[in-house]
Amino acid sequence: MKFLGNLLWLLLGGIVTAIEYLFASLLLMLTIIGIPFGLQTLKLAQLALWPFGSTVTDRGNSGGCLSVLMNVIWIFIGGIWICLSHLFFGVVLCVTIIGIPFGIQHFKMAALALTPFGKEIRF
């Protein structure tokens, strides 16, 4: 069932979302300062490709000062807007019964988009 959900996800927009995150990641990695943020958008691209069956977990050092500082910077430079867009799509998809599983995946991506530093994706 996870395979079918991921296949439908890819066909109905997941591949486009992953390409957008990949493109943003490459743009961010053009500068040395942007490399850590580019790595976080790669995480979002990875989750956008295969969200069903994957979980977002905290790493052991997720409460460290550097992760907190980087998450605060991330939120101010655009993470809040990425999170809000995934929340919007999650709410819209949850209006119908068929869209609820896809809406839940957007909620998972919204949580990662808000604070990606110190998190990892497990498949």
Structure description:
This protein is mainly alpha-helical and 123 residues long. The protein has a two-stranded antiparallel sheet with strand order 1-2. It contains four helices and two strands; from the N terminus they run H-H-E-H-H-E. The mean pLDDT is 92. The protein has helices at residues 2-28, 35-49, 65-93, 100-114, and strands spanning 55-58, 119-122. It starts with a helix and ends with a strand. The chain has one domain. Helix 1 (2-28) runs antiparallel to helix 2 (35-49) and helix 3 (65-93) packs antiparallel against helix 4. The longest helix is centred in the middle third of the chain and has 29 residues, at 65-93.
Count up the helices.
4
Number of strands: 2
What is the strand arrangement across the widest sheet?
1-2
Q: State the distance separating the first and last CA atoms.
A: 15 Å
Question: Would you summarize the structure shown here?
Answer:
With 123 residues, the protein is mainly alpha-helical. It is built from 4 helices and 2 strands; from the N terminus they run H-H-E-H-H-E. The mean pLDDT is 92.
Please give a handful of descriptors for the protein shown.
123 residues, mainly alpha, two-stranded antiparallel sheet, 2 strands, 70% helix, globular
Summarize the helices and strands and which ones pair or pack.
Layout: H1 2-28, H2 35-49, E1 55-58, H3 65-93, H4 100-114, E2 119-122
